[in-house]
Design brief:
heterodimer; A: alpha+beta; Arc Repressor Mutant, subunit A; 4-stranded antiparallel β-sheet; B: SH3 type barrels; 10 strands
């Protein structure tokens, strides 16, 4: 039986638990039936170690529920980044890391592998009673890994490879800029890593409407971006709720669509089977790997560019002949200019026209009417006219309002 | 790619411990505090024992170290590429930074690689030199706790002068706006940065140190009917609030959300966006806000 360790090797497991505790948080231990009780206990303990301040417990008839409750308006650093700072390593990894950078303490120190090996043994490990043994292959592998990370430089001198550390660069950012972008830029976890190396500072920024779960999808996001930069396809496991079992997908990432109103992030990607551009939830994707180059990348991205003027959200059917017309009119009184302002700033791909002094009409031609429905509902109390070419969607909208009349006991409500 | 031990709290904590030891600070209390500062609550059970027992061969039993230099590591390629990507963001203009050292670096992503598709269109003017200058002055004032005299345009288009003590800057990704959280003025509290048309440091003696207004914390309880994936949509949508959820039965869930009173109208319309799948259960005053809107809607005679 393995011993509990605060660090994690496989991020996917803890990623799933953190999302479950944070987004839902009403499951008891026994409800996590897919995993063993031991696994649940270990993950819960790890998360408590990282995020103890935000972890809460409540006892229900089903048992003890664990949940994470975080007011992201008062929490100035995304606490989920902590999970990305808990990668496991071996005793040899950490020992070798600090010794290597101590030997190569400035870029001026340039040494070959045999010289480094000699120093490791003579200057460092000989001080210990049972010195670790690092063979040439292990050290070479570590140096290669660090060369790929850009922190060690390998240069050939004749037939010998010489190593030195990369130049120490001053950060172009101050801590305030780093803090701000670590919270709002894609892959902001990297900013948080950089911030960790700064002197402790007072936070001058806080955030409203701040969704933090994207932190858990940082690796998938970074690989998606890498695929776009290299114009290549990827393979990934898609845990979509539409399929009973996880699906292996081979896709060409074209663009990431980020919602700041519901915290979801999607990868719009081309799937050769079906010749279509589809939206994949980043939080449903795992084990993403870069694949073969895609020679049609620029053409495919141009296809997405052409489709975007008809996308309210992420649905990209690309069929100009099946566009759905959406139109609704709202009442805005003489002192309600803020309603017109709302329409203007929230209209996205739609247009707003003035009907008369107190009525304004929104219209758009979109691939999917249903994507607009939640937004149109926010104007409930002033919708005077509705016209969807998708009659099913219009009837559903009206039916829902009738249902709300009934639910809240509005006199005479409920009947269409 | 991002999930790497190079960025781990453990490596940072060990670097800090070795730095302390090199400075001669080897007492147990200092080392424990160092670990607690850089790592997690249970890391104390691992890091110091691993160092002291020579499991990680960086610290001798006599608390000396063969490490001779304060640990440091150059920026990784990932870090440089992220910084380069950030340099392409228009909001970087708000900060006085130079990216000359990253000239040869490829960005991790470009603005063409992602789109924020539901951000409001009337965000702050990041290309306006006047706005940038005021932003920088205000940020500096926040750093220095320097009172400011500002002129701000109110909702009626009138310019109002006020003296405030700047506390911090709040950014909303949805609104794409900065707001200045202040103390010390009856008009103050929260001021949209884009509404500030003039600001200057204020050194007047009559300005007394003031405190931030208390948040008016409220709560609302919702009942979710899990149809059309409403549960997941709702829980994610309200994820950024402090909240608690429980299952009522196989199809229904109850969520208790804490919010600030000043955000009540926004919360009302966000709840309305879920239609009949989310019902306000309590308090009654909040429920009546929904009822009033529905009654007005009924008056619109849509059907």
């Amino acid at each position: 039986m393995s011993v509990y360790n605060e660090r994690v090797k496989n991020f996917e497991k803890v990623r799933a638990y953190m999302r479950e505790f944070y987004v839902y948080g009403f499951k008891s231990r026994s409800a996590y039936d897919e995993k063993s009780a031991r696994s649940y206990d270990d993950e819960r303990r790890r998360i408590e170690s990282w995020l103890g301040d935000y972890m809460h417990f409540v006892r229900t008839s089903e048992g003890k529920n664990v949940f994470l409750s975080i007011d992201s308006r008062t929490t100035v650093h995304n606490p989920f980044y902590k999970a990305l700072k808990a990668k496991s390593f071996t005793d040899g990894d950490i020992t070798l890391h600090f010794i290597l950078f101590d030997i190569l303490h400035t870029p001026a120190v340039v040494l070959s592998l045999p010289q480094i090996l000699e120093k490791i043994d003579k200057d460092y490990l000989c001080h210990f009673r049972a010195p670790m043994l690092f063979d040439a292959s292990t050290v070479r592998k570590k140096l290669k890994e660090y060369t790929e990370e850009g922190i060690i430089v390998a240069e050939k001198s004749g037939r010998t490879v010489l190593y030195h550390r990369a130049e120490m660069q001053n950060l172009p950012f101050d801590a305030d800029a780093l803090h701000y972008f670590s919270e709002i830029a894609p892959c902001g976890a990297v900013g948080s890593f950089l911030l960790d190396k700064q002197k402790l500072h007072t936070e001058r920024f806080c955030f409203k409407h701040h969704y933090i779960t994207g932190a858990l999808d940082s690796d998938v996001l970074a690989v998606s971006f890498a695929a776009m930069q290299q114009k290549c396809e990827v393979t990934a496991v898609n845990y979509t709720r539409r399929a009973a079992t996880p699906q292996l997908v081979r896709i060409v990432p074209l663009r990431v669509f980020i919602s700041v109103q519901n915290g979801r992030q999607y990868l719009l990607a081309y799937q050769a089977a079906g010749d279509s551009i589809k939206a994949y939830r980043l939080d449903y994707l795992a084990q993403m790997q870069l694949g073969a180059p895609c020679l049609q990348f620029d053409t495919l991205r141009a296809r997405l560019d052409a489709a975007q003027p008809h996308m309210w959200g992420v649905n990209c059917r690309e069929n100009e002949n099946r566009l759905e017309h959406v139109e609704f009119t709202v009442f805005a009184g003489k002192n309600e200019a803020y309603i017109v302002n709302r329409l203007q700033r929230e209209k996205r791909i739609g247009t707003v026209t003035k009907v008369d002094d107190t009525h304004y009409r929104f219209s758009a031609d979109v691939y999917d009417t249903s994507e607009l429905i939640p937004w149109i509902r926010t104007f409930i109390c002033r919708i005077t006219q509705l016209r969807f070419s998708n009659r099913t969607a219009e009837n559903r909208f009206k039916h829902d309002i009738a249902e709300m009349y009934r639910m809240y006991g509005i006199e005479g409500g409920g009947a269409l | 790619m991002i999930f790497s031990e190079l960025y781990s709290a453990y490596y940072n904590a060990v670097a800090a411990v070795l730095t302390a030891v090199l400075r001669g600070e080897t007492d147990e209390k200092t080392l424990q505090e160092t670990v607690q500062k850089y790592a997690f609550s249970e890391s104390i059970l691992t890091i110091l024992p691993a160092l002291k027992t020579e499991k990680w061969q960086l610290l001798n039993r006599d608390m000396t170290t063969p490490i001779q230099h304060v640990p440091s590591m150059p920026l990784t390629l990932l870090e440089k590429r992220w910084l380069k990507a950030v340099s392409l963001d228009p909001r970087i203009r708000l900060f006085d930074v130079s990216f000359d050292s990253l000239r040869e670096v490829e960005p991790l992503f470009t603005p063409n690689d992602y789109v924020v598709f539901d951000r409001y269109a009337d965000g702050d003017p990041y290309f306006d030199e006047g706005y940038i200058a005021r932003f920088r002055m205000i940020l500096q004032a926040v750093r220095d706790r320097q009172p400011l005299k500002i002129e701000s345009v109110n909702r009626r288009g009138q310019v109002v002068e006020m003296i405030i003590s700047p506390l911090r800057l709040e950014y909303s990704e949805k609104d794409d706006k900065f707001r200045l959280i202040t103390a010390g003025c009856r008009y103050g509290g929260v001021i949209n940065l884009a509404r500030i048309v003039f600001c200057t440091p204020y050194d007047g003696a009559e300005f007394a140190v003031c405190y931030e207004r208390d948040k008016r914390s409220q709560s609302v309880t919702l009942k979710i009917c899990d149809e059309r994936n409403a549960l997941e949509r709702c829980m994610l949508h309200f994820a950024h609030f402090e909240k608690r959820a429980e299952r009522i039965d196989k199809k229904h869930y109850q969520v208790h959300i804490c919010y600030d009173k000043s955000d009540e109208t926004e919360l009302v319309i966000r709840i309305l966006s879920f239609g009949p799948l989310v019902e306000v259960v309590s308090p009654d005053a909040f429920r009546q806000l929904i009822v009033a809107r529905l009654q007005n809607q009924k008056g619109c005679e849509l059907f």
